[in-house]
Amino acid sequence: MGGGKALNAVLRKNASEALFPILRDLGIQAALTHKGALALHLNTNRAAKEIKVIVNHEDNVTLEGICAAVLSPRRSQCSNGYFTKSDGHLAHRLKFFPSDRAAEGKPCRVIFILNGGSSPTILEDFSEITRISGVPVLPIHAILLEQFIAHSRLPTPTRLSKGTAKFISQCLVACGRTPLQQLSPLWRSLDILAIIPQHVQVDPKAKKDWIARGIDHSVFTTAFSPSQDFPDVPDEAGRDIESDDDGSDRGASEDLSGIVQETLSVVPEEPDDHGHWHSVVSDFAARQVVSLLRGFGVECALVGSAASQLYSHGETPVPEQLEILALRGYVSLSPSLLKQSLFQACPSQFEWKKENLFYKFSGPTFLRSNRKCKVEILVPNTANPLNLASSNIIWIDDLPVVPFLTLLLSKLQLWGNDNSPTNAVDILDLLLLVPDLPVFMLRPWAARKGMSEKFQRDSEVRVKRFCSKSNFPEAGPTWEMLGFDIESD
Question: Is 225 exposed, middle or buried (0-12, 13-18, 19+ CB in 10 A)?
Fold first, then answer.
């Protein structure tokens, strides 16, 4: 078939072509929503192997009744496949098995959502429905509202995942500039408005987009901001958003014991355009390793590429290695003994091989093949100039990260040692973030407190070399913003 996203698009297309004529014959107004709908609006394949369908409420119409009608012997067998009940006891879901060979025998999930009646009204006027490739699709502003409603109706308050926040940002940018309150009164609901600052916490650049669409500045004040620590969960709404390649719902990972079972809470998002798992190291492995180390009494912080990805909100390359720095005053064991302790705490999740520790991403809920990332523990010593205290640490997405300047100068030190183009690209990527970083993250004056004087002097020399005419002179103004002199002596 040549790619999971292309296969998913075939499954959604076949399921939509079979379902909507049935609903039309039943006299039911319906339209596609969520990622499958946005994919049609944006002409992209990026969405899971499922279709979410909004059905307009009418007298005596229930989701269970719609599923029963679709599954009736006269309708369940279509010219391009057949419908069956979904696994489990969820009466508002079906599965469609296309006869198209391109579908490779895989099913597409069908999830129904009620519009109006006892449920919130996502779209008042169904004349706004548009048809794309013959499929009725919600307008983008209604797709955005449906995602907010789904999140607000979760049984317990939960933090927006990065995948959900990215989807919201895509909808927000694509939905036009009409004030949202003019499109639906639900945008005045406190339950809906309270989610907006959560979204901005994950995607700070989205604040201006919300304001441009009529959201008042007061929404971003502490009165609306989250006042409690929300648990991390798989992407929202009962594991509906993503599915793995065999069509099964995402579930929790395999059972772990003790502290690991208590701290395991984040599921990786769908692969990015290069087939990698977006932010899987920082979102999953880092949380577990950090929790275990803190359970040992070792305060720590992320450094390296995992830290870069947190500062960039996932825009820098996906890290293949997890590097964690133990903080000053918390280390009584060597890096080797710390890594052995991690392995012994959870041998099912780690691999110990030739004095190296690897975190394993295994099991059907994650990757089609077993992948792993190397875990490195760094401690303050003469070879490592990073000597940080817990007061120096920045927290991003509830993960401890070394200060931005510390991270940047560490990358610069690596570049100074080997002049690697890869390290140069990493540095330039980080420099691009500087103008938009909030002050509490940047703090170049405070970050220097965790560096030795020699490291600071050496860094000043390396900055001048990096900005020289033979290297990257265009980076000079950004280094000057950070307080460095780029002129050679």
Answer: middle
Q: Residue 317 has what pLDDT?
A: 65
From the list 174, 218, 178, the residue with the least C-alpha distance to 196 is 218
Please give the model's pTM, rounded to 2 decimal places: 0.49
Question: Is residue 82 within 8 Å of 68, Cβ to Cβ?
Answer: no
Give me the phi and psi of 395, to 5 degrees please.
Answer: -110, 125
- pLDDT for residue 244: 36
List the chain residues with pLDDT less than 50: 1-2, 222-229, 233-278, 363-369
Two structure tokens written together for 363: 């099991």
Cα dihedral sign for 34, 37, 39, 41? negative
**In angstroms, rounded to a whole number, what is the distance separating the alpha carbons of residues 251 and 133?**
33
Number of Cβ within a 10 Å radius of residue 478:
19
Please answer whether residues 195 and 168 qualify as being in contact, where contact means their C-beta atoms are separated by less than 8 angstroms: no
The maximal CA–CA distance of the chain, rounded, in angstroms, is 85
Burial (CB count within 10 angstroms: exposed 0-12, middle 13-18, buried 19+), residue 311: buried
Provide the token pair at 464.
């001048």
For 316-432, list the strands marked E by DSSP: 321-326, 350-353, 356-361, 371-378, 394-396, 399-401
- 371: helix, coil or strand? strand
Give the C-alpha separation, 135 to 341, whole Å. 55
| Strands laid side by side in the 93-98 sheet | 77-78, 81-85, 93-98, 108-115, 50-56, 30-33, 135-137, 130-132
DSSP 8-state symbol, 5: H
User: By C-alpha distance, which of 370, 193, 357 is closest to 288?
Assistant: 357
Instruction: Name every residue whose Cβ is closer than 8 Å to that of residue 103 and which is 6 or more positions away in sequence.
Output: 7, 10, 11, 14, 81, 97
DSSP conformational letter for 217: G
> What is the model's pLDDT at position 276?
41
Q: What is the pLDDT of residue 455?
A: 86
At 405, list the tokens.
């300047």
Give the Cα separation of 230 and 283 in Å (integer): 15
Q: For residue 337, count CB atoms less than 10 angstroms from its CB and return exposed for 0-12, middle for 13-18, buried for 19 or more.
A: exposed
Does an H or E element contain 32, and which? strand 30-33
Is residue 204 left, alpha or beta, with left meaning phi > 0 and alpha meaning psi from -120 to 50? alpha
Q: List the alpha helices (DSSP H) in 346-420.
A: 404-418
Burial (CB count within 10 angstroms: exposed 0-12, middle 13-18, buried 19+), residue 230 = middle
The residue whose two tokens read 């790619």 is 3
CA dihedral 150, 155, 158, 160 (to 10 degrees): -10
- Give the Cα separation of 111 and 240 in Å (integer): 8
Helix (H) or strand (E) holding 17: helix 4-25
Rg for the chain (alpha carbons), in Å?
A: 25
Residue 41, SS3? helix
As given in the structure block, the two tokens for residue 57 are 């409420």
